[in-house]
Design goal:
single chain; globular
Length: about 250
């Protein structure tokens, strides 16, 4: 699921708020069709990093290039990047179909093409039977799928996901993880997936990076991440093993 050329290149990104440093010299590369999981505790700067890449916040220093083009100074709407929040943020007055079709309608895509593209997306997301329902008539997990569909239908060059499954119950979260992996392959998605959940980071990422004290450490392989004593994996494994021992 990786390509041969660098798709996104971040170099020396820094950001401070009220004199307090949040990001320090953040540097990483992302290849085409690759999902990079960024894991870290709440408040460590994960959301700030995504917003800088999306163009929703300016970096104090550093550069961002996409396919070799410097996009650091571009406005958010010029970057061809979609940012997905934790909340689905659907239009309550529009059906599932029309929520997903919204961006295509803004682009004045022909009606037949809209029908074709949205039906394909609904089928990919297992939502076809819900096409005419309003957001309040479907579950939280289904609303999150609609949010995915609305983003993916525009074929963004990069998808940024800010803990999108954190508010879901365990079973629904697992279903969304499986769905995300499948859709990534089907739509050839390049993405950065932010989470505080180590297991989720390993399941969804082709690579995993940790963000600690404002600094990003991007591991080249999952094995390197697991072996890193600073990753927290060893502590998590030990915790579950201790629970298993206590049960005997």
């Amino acid at each position: 699921m990786t390509g041969g050329t660098v798709f996104l290149q971040a170099r020396g990104l820094g950001k401070s708020f009220s004199g307090e440093s949040v990001l320090q010299s953040v540097t990483f590369d992302l290849e085409p069709r690759q999902v990079l999981s960024v894991v870290g505790r709440s408040g460590c700067g994960k959301t700030t990093l995504l917003k800088i890449i999306a163009g929703l916040l300016p970096a104090d220093e550093g550069t961002i290039k996409r396919r070799g083009r410097d996009i650091t100074a571009l406005k958010a709407e010029q970057r061809d990047i979609v940012y997905l929040y934790q909340d689905a943020l659907l239009f309550p007055h529009l059906s599932v179909f029309e929520n997903i079709a919204f961006g295509l309608r803004l682009r004045k895509v022909a009606a037949l093409q809209v029908e074709h593209d949205v039906v394909r997306m609904l089928r990919s997301l297992d939502l076809l039977e819900h096409r005419d329902k309003a957001p309040h008539q479907i579950s939280g997990g289904q609303r999150q799928r609609v949010s995915f569909g609305r983003a993916l239908i525009l074929a963004p060059s990069l998808l940024l996901l800010d803990e999108p499954f954190s508010g879901l119950d365990t079973d629904t979260r697992a279903q969304m993880q499986d769905l995300f992996k499948r859709v990534c392959v089907e739509y050839a998605i390049t993405a950065i997936f932010v989470t505080h959940d180590l297991k989720e980071a390993l399941i969804l990422g082709d690579r995993v990076a940790t963000l600690r004290d404002g600094r990003l450490h991007a591991h080249q392989t999952k094995a390197q991440f697991i072996a890193d004593p600073e990753s927290g994996v060893a502590e998590e494994v030990a915790f579950w093993q201790s629970l298993g021992s206590a049960g005997h």
